[in-house]
Amino acid sequence: MKKILWILSLIFITACTSTSKPPLKAPLFSQVSRIKSSDIKSLSGMDTDFYAKKYFMAKNFLEKRQTDRACDDFEDLIDSPEFPLNDLVTIFFLENCPVSKSKLKRFVKLNQGKKYFKEDFLIIAIKHARQLELTDVLTSLLFELADYKKSSKEKITLLEETLGLAREESSNDSEQINQNIIEKLKKLNPSKYTPINTENKFNVAKDFESKRNFEKAQAIYQEIINSDVEVDLKEKAFNAYRMSFKVNRDLKSFLVKTKEMESFFDNLTRENSSNKRLNEIWNDSAISLARALWTEHLNAEAQSVLDKILDKKICNENQCSQATFIKAQIALEEKDYSLALKNLKNALKFDIKDPSLKENIQWNLIFNSYLAKKFQDITHLAPKFYKNHSNINFSSKLKYWHGKALQKIQKDTEANKIFQELLDLDTFSYYGILSSMELKYPLEPLKNFNPVLTESGDNTFDWLLALEEQKYAQDYLKQIDGKFKTYKERENAYQYYFHTNWYQGALRQIYYFPNEKRNEITAKYSHLIFPYPYTNKALEMSQKYQVPLEYIFSIIRQESSFVPTERSWADAFGLMQLTPESAHKISKDFQIPYQNIEELYVPEKNIELGVALLKSLRDRFEGKFIHSTAAYNASEEAINKWQTERFSGDYFEFIELIPYEETRNYIKLVFRNYVTYKRILKNDSFLLERDFFEKEFN
Questions:
Q1: Which of 529, 559, 574 delimits the end of a domain?
Q2: Are the C-beta atoms of residues 456 and 30 closer than 8 Å to each other?
Q3: Which end of the chain is more exposed for a tag (fewer CB within 10 A), N or C?
Q4: What pLDDT band is residue 450 in, cutting at 50, 70 and 90?
């Protein structure tokens, strides 16, 4: 058992290996072809070219199934500390070569500490430890592998096996080792490993909820709410309690519990009227209730709650402004533009500390003025709001509708000037694309980016690139990506995102560039910022279900950024963020084999189910973009209600009138994605007609 404790302790430190020679510098990328074609006998000494050639030879022997020769070369490389990838090579040895107990222990010791390839090493080393019946080594490897797994379920499975193995051993150290494992299990699986007490009740409830045991979670939330705890914890528990019904798709109960929350905190404020924090909590709960009522089209009840907030006069500036703002939104829905404008102006009179709330009110004032046909007012007010504003999304939106207002008063030249500015500054945004439609400006295809690879200056990374280890180069890049700080370093990194196929890095990096630079970067590296992995499966499903390929990629990019293991707060899973309920229904409707939630993490399965869902929505809504996209994000019922209540003939206005901010932005972003993917995947320029949203799109 002492062996287990010793190995477990090594997990938390990096072993220092003294070498007689410094690590060799990576080969120049321009020399790789020469090295691959050279005879190893012609290479002088144990230098860079020699080790690179030996590595290529070993991999080539594997391809030719000359395993013995490959294993000899792998072992030579492992025994050469001056070769910077000698630790990585242990993976290839373990995958292909005979392994003894002593050799496995040596490899485990060589690979102590955090390494970019560690998860792969642990998986293959665990396989050998089982075969060799090395319980002490197996225990430590399982314990460490748990840290590398993303899902709690996988972590728990590994730690529980580790605990079982550790308990089989009997020694003075066993109690301490078991405790180390149990401490991790308590954090991951508190509902099973933690006795419920006041301090951990909330975490235990969240754990039950994550396992979709909503009844148990809700019972514990109620215990917290009704117990003698701080009011902030009561608020946290009540919000989690009501939201758990929404996650479980029980919207009727969600509304009931939201009402209960408001009433609960209202009663507390009556008993403690001077408690400022309690007053804030009640106002927040009342605002949540008003929104929930409004969402269910119970406008009169929502108005009553909002009036109550403003009449009590215990809201802070942000809360008072927010309540007044919601009143304006309800008035807009009821097409009472005069009242909406009045409430919006009143909402701006408060000292608003939340910049996003202030922007939202300003924007709504502009758009409501447009709907009320007060176009002249917009021409004066909009520039005041967007001039010198740092949020390009906010300023682009206001500029576009400023331009539309100018069109309405026959100032087409001024309007076109604004549209041109938008197109030049923010070409790839929703409003930039709309501006191209206003100007009848054809969109050109985007050229592929195929950079010449240059040395990074990081020796290990350059070795991985030179030896064409794309997967491990990507894993290593994820570790060093934070080192790119300047704009020059960030742009230079795009060649590495390209050569390692790490598109998530490319997607994230674009937001570090200033607005004036972002357009140029997006155009230059569009194939990375708008990638198209899983192309074969996506193309197959596109043809099978008659859904445009560009649309499939647009949805995946927006839903998961192409991360197949993504899971949302609303229990949507995988690349296309499917809920279990949707997956089950679609599998039955289209006779697609589907058994459980875990399958939604499989890209091929997720894509087929997701594309089949898109087909059903396109069929339902006659192929119209707004309706299909909104239904995918919200629901068919929601878009049907919005169509009935808010559509007045103009689809561009209709998008802005969608009450769910998430769905409103989702439509805009998916449209942005769709147009950009058309520019990437098509060879010819094309013109987006203004009637695009009125008809079936392909």
A1: 529
A2: no
A3: C
A4: confident
DSSP string, 194-246: S---TTTHHHHHHHHHHTT-HHHHHHHHHHHHTSS--HHHHHHHHHHHHHHHH
Residue type, 350: F
Q: What's the token pair of residue 166? A: 């550790």
Residue partners of 435: CB distance under 8 A and separation at least 6: 400, 403, 419, 420, 422, 423, 441
Q: How far apart are CA 259 and CA 293, in angstroms?
A: 9
Instruction: Confirm if 319 and 290 have CB atoms less than 8 A apart.
Output: no
Q: How far apart are CA 5 and CA 424, in angstroms?
A: 63
Domain count across the chain: 4
Q: Do 506 and 563 share a structural domain?
A: no
Residue 12 DSSP label: T
b/e code 661-697 from CB counts within 10 Å (16+ = b): eebbbbbbbbbbbbbbbbbbbeeeeeebeeebbeeeb
Rounded to whole angstroms, the Cα distance separating 340 from 333 reads 9
Q: In whole angstroms, what is the distance from residue 49 CA to residue 36 CA? A: 9
Average predicted confidence (pLDDT) for the chain: 93
Tokens of 231: 């009011």
H-only helix segments in 133-195: 135-148, 152-168, 174-188, 190-193
Rounded Cα distance, 443 and 437, in Å = 10
Q: Is 624 helix (H, G, I), strand (E, B) or coil?
A: strand
Residue 295 is assigned to a structural domain of this protein:
yes
- Residues 154-163, mean pLDDT to the nearest whole number: 94
Range of the domain at 517: 459-529
CATH of the domain at 673: 1.10.530.10
Residue owning tokens 């995946």: 556
Separation between Cα atoms, residue 176 and residue 5, nearest integer Å: 9
Q: What is the H or E stretch that residue 514 is in?
A: none
Q: Model's pTM, two decimal places?
A: 0.83
Query: Residue 395 in contact with residue 383, Cβ under 8 Å?
Result: no
The two tokens of residue 383 are: 């520039």
Position 44 confidence tier, pLDDT thresholds 50, 70, 90: low
User: Are the beta carbons of 244 and 214 closer than 8 angstroms?
Assistant: yes
Is residue 421 a part of any domain in this protein?
no
Contact 28, 18 (CB under 8 A): no
- The confidence score (pLDDT) of residue 6 equals 37
549-560 and 535-545 are packed helices; what angle lies between their axes, rounded to 10 degrees? 120
Read off the pLDDT of residues 685-697 as tens digits, 9 standing for 90 and up: 999 999 999 999 9
8 A C-beta contact, residue 332 and residue 300: no
Using the structure block, give the residue that is written with the tokens 């707004």.
Answer: 626
pLDDT band at 300; cut points 50, 70, 90:
very high
Residue written as token pair 């050279």: 38
- In this predicted model, what pLDDT tens digit does every residue of 213-248 receive, in sequence order? 999 999 999 999 999 999 999 999 999 999 999 999
In a domain, 319, yes or no: yes
Distance CA 166, CA 135 (A): 9
CA distance 545 to 612: 6
Instruction: Give me the pLDDT at residue 258, please.
Output: 98
Task: Give the closest residue to 160 by CA, choosing from 133, 181, 136, 129.
Answer: 181
Residue with tokens 């008659």: 546
Query: What is the DSSP secondary structure assignment for residue 20, as one 8-state letter?
Result: S
Domain boundary among 529, 553, 588: 529
Indicate if the pLDDT at residue 173 is higher than 80.
no
Handedness of CA 600, 602, 606, 608 (dihedral sign): negative
CA distances from 16 to 113, 137, 480 (A): 10, 20, 21
Residue 256 lies in a domain: yes
Q: Which residues pair with 624 in a beta bridge?
A: 696
Do 218 and 352 share a structural domain?
yes
